[in-house]
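Quick one:
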Amino acid sequence: MDWRTWRKHERERIIAERLAVPSAYSRQWSAAISILLQQGFPSLRQKKIGLYWPFRGEYDPRPAVLDFMTTGAVLALPEVIGKNEPLCFREWWPDAPMRMGAYDIPVPHETRCVEPDALIVPMVGFDQKGYRLGYGSGYFDRTLAAFSICPLTIGVAFELQRLENVHPQLHDIAMQYVITEAGIFQAGRKQLERIPANQCAKDNTTG
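Output:
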């Protein structure tokens, strides 16, 4: 099997399905993810959070994390600085100066660089072990590999993006948690395991 061709096909199929979701469903699913993110990860209220600008029908994390910002969180958006380089996360707030970056996705304009404690990561697809199918550029995997201390990683997606196996490559790094409209799922065992939001919050509480 040519897994590169398979991943390309699955990427195109899932993006098309995601873009075709009726807006009412997308809003409903996104609201559920936002609630789970806030209930399951209250520790983010005091952290430096790397998030993303939504693209091609992705879940929009901005409303949920703006609530964290009101209690002291620092927010940052990724910037592509080189084809084979890790992403640079630049501080972002609602009125931050912006410019168009790679793939015509807005990025903060010359705000300070931040090393996140936690990453909310977009996924084209994800599998039963928490590995993600991305857009094929490898930016997030290179970024995670470059951290001296790996941040908390939370992949977010809709259930329609779930796959049995994304057939990860050697350099791929699994998410620690995955959130969909169906719940919070923890990786690290044989397969993703659904956990209650209050248990997730307890597990991620720092003293």
